[in-house]
Amino acid sequence: MKRKKWTLTPWFIIFGVVMLLMSTFMSAYSMPLFYAELGITVLTVAAVIVLSLRFRSYIRSTVRGTAERIYGFDSEFLEQYKYPVAVSGEKGDIVWCNARFRKNICGGRSPEGDNINAYLPGFSIVDITNGEGADIAIDGKEFTVYAVSNGEGGSVCHFIDNTDYKQTAREYHANMPAVALISFDNAEDFFTDSDESYSNVHISVEANIQGWAMDYNGLYKQLGNNRYMIIFRDADVEKMIAQKFPVLKNVRTISANRHIATISVGLCRGCKLVKESEMNARKALEMALGRGGDQVAVIRDGNYEFFGGTAAAAEKVSKVRMRVIANAISRAVNDSDKVYIMGHRFSDLDCVGAAIGMQCIMENSFKRYCKIVINRETSMARQLIKYTEERQSGDIFVTAEEALRGVTSKTLLIIVDTHLKNSLESPEFYEKCKRVVVIDHHRRAVNYINNALVFCHEPSASSASEMCCEIISYLDDKPLGYIQADAMLSGIMLDTKNFVLKTGVRTFEAAAYLRRKGANTLTVKEMFSGSIETYREKVDIVCRSHIYKGCAISTSDRTSGDVRLAAAQAADEMLTLSGVAASFVIFPDGERINISARSYGRINVQVIMEQLGGGGHQTMAATQLSDIKMTEALNRLVAAIDAALADSEST
C-alpha cells in the first residue's frame, strides 16, 4: 500500500512558499488577484500545519499508549528492544519503528507511512493480532511475528529472528530415519521353474533393491528369504514420493515364464527412534500386502499414502494358512455360546452365499445357535434368500434389531465379505459384540476392523464364498448340502463374472468342491435373473454411457425400483463394449450419490474409488458421496480417473 498523504507535508510547504512568492509578484499587476492568491496560500499553509499537528499528536498518543502498556513511562524503552519492533495505527499504517526494524526488515529505509501488511507476506495484522503469531520470510531471513493491540486501535508487532533455529529444525527432520521393509511378493511363483531361472530372477530383484538403496545412500540389509530393509533419510523419501517410487516399475520388468516379479514396501516416516520406525514399517508392509502387493505404503503419524498397486494380486497356491485359520475359528466358536454372521450393507450373492455356508456349519457341526443378520429390503440377493427359506426348515435370517436382543458377553460375530466397520449391515451390532472374526477378500483399507480374534484376509481370492469353502473343508463339512453349495457357488460366479475375472486354481477347486456337495449351475443361474423393469433400467444406463480415456461413464436419475442392482449390472455390461477398460455408473440413493465401478484389471478401480472416499477390489469397487450433486460427482470422478491414470503411467 502507498504511503499516507501526510508524508507529502514537506512538498505542501514548498508549494505554499512558491504560491506566496507568486502572490507577491502578482501585486505589481493586480491587487484583487494578489489578495485572492494570498488568501489561498494562507489557507493551504494553515491546513498543512493543522494536519501535521494532528498527525504528530496521533503518533505521540499511539506510541505513548504502547509504551505505557509495555513498560510504563516513555517510548524510549521501545528503541532499546534487541529485535525489530514496529507500531501501527488503527488503519494499519506504520507510525513508529525502532532502528533494528529499519535495518533488518527495511534495509535501512524509513518505513513510516507504509502499511504493516506489506511486511507480513501472506498474512494481515488483524489475523496475527487475534492469533498466535505467524512465520514469515523476508530477504532470506525467517521471522516469527507476534502482534498485540496497543489499546488505541493499532498494534505492536514484534519480529523474532529465528532463521538459525528453523534451519536446524529442517535439517533435523530431513535427517530423521525412514525405515523401509521390502517383500518379494511372488517369489514362490518362480520356484516351479528351473533353479537357474529362479536364481536369475532372485538376483535381478535383489540388484534392483540394492540399487535403490545406493541411489539415496541408504543402509541396506537382507533380513531373510525375500525380505529386505533399507534405512533412508526422510528428505530422500520426499524425492521418492515425487517420482512415484520408480523401483516398482523397475522390478516389474523382471519376468520368467509368464510370471512378473513384484515387490511390496512398507515405509515409515516421522519417528524419532529407528525401532519405532521399524515397527510402523511392519504395519505399513502388512497394509501393502493386504491390498494385493506391488505397491508402497507410506505411514506417517498413523496416516497412510499408497503408490503403485497396478498388478493383480498373485494367487497363493498353498492352503496351509487357511487350515491354520480354520483351526483358530474352531477354537473361537467352541468358546462361544452364540454365533451371528453379518456382511456388508446392500448384501450381494457373495456376501449372503458365504454367510449361508458358514451358518450351516456353525449350527450343525458345532451345535451353536447361529443366525445371519441381514436387511431383506435393501439386499441385492433377495432371490437367494427366498430360495434358501423355501427349502430349509427354520428361519436362519434375522434383523439387526432382533439380533441385538440376543447378544451376550460370549457371543461371536463372524463378518464376511467386508472388513470395514462403516460398511457393515449394522455397525451398532458390531459395537455390541466383543468377539469378532473377519473373512474377506477385498483389498485392505486403512480403517479396517483391527480388534478381530481372527482376521482372515486374502486379496488374491476370487470371493468370500471361495474362502469360506476352503475354511469349511477343514472343518466338519458333513452337514453341508446342496442349498449351501448353490448359495456359495452363486457368490463365486458373481464375483468372478462367471469364472472370467480373478479366477485361479483354488477358485476352480472350490467350485469342484461345491459341485460334489450338490451345487447345480442351472439353479445358480436362475438367481441372477431380474425383473423386466430392472433390465430396462440397465439397458437405459448402458445407452446413456460415454467413453472417457478408455472408461465408460454413465448416470441414472432414477431413485425408485431396484436401481442399485440395475447400476451394478449396467457397469458389468459396459465392460463388454469395445475399447472399454473400466466402467462407472453414478446414481442417487436418497441424499447420497453412489458410484459403482468395474474393470477387467487393466485399470485399478479400487484406487479411483479410494480417492472419492470409497474402496473395494481391483476389478470391483464403489463409493458414496454426501451433500453433492450429480454434476459435481461426475466432475470429481473424472478428476480421480485422470489422477489414477497419471499415477499408473508414472509407475
Give me a quick take on this structure.
By secondary structure, the chain is an alpha/beta fold. The protein is built from 23 helices and 25 strands.
List the helices and strands and how they pair.
Layout: H1 9-26, H2 31-70, H3 76-79, E1 85-88, E2 94-97, H4 99-104, H5 125-130, E3 134-138, E4 141-149, E5 155-161, H6 163-174, E6 177-184, H7 195-215, E7 219-224, E8 227-233, H8 234-243, H9 246-252, E9 255-256, E10 259-260, E11 263-269, H10 274-290, E12 295-300, E13 303-308, H11 320-334, E14 338-342, H12 349-364, E15 369-373, H13 382-391, E16 397-398, H14 400-404, E17 411-416, H15 427-432, E18 435-440, E19 454-457, H16 464-473, H17 482-495, H18 505-516, H19 521-526, H20 532-543, E20 546-548, E21 551-555, H21 563-574, E22 582-589, E23 592-599, H22 605-611, E24 615-616, E25 620-626, H23 630-650
Parallel strand pairs: 11-12, 14-15, 14-17, 15-16, 17-18, 18-19, 21-22
Antiparallel strand pairs: 1-2, 1-5, 3-4, 4-5, 6-8, 6-11, 7-8, 9-10, 12-13, 20-21, 22-23, 23-25, 24-25
Helix pairs in contact: 1-2, 11-16, 12-16, 12-17, 16-17, 16-18, 17-18, 20-21, 22-23
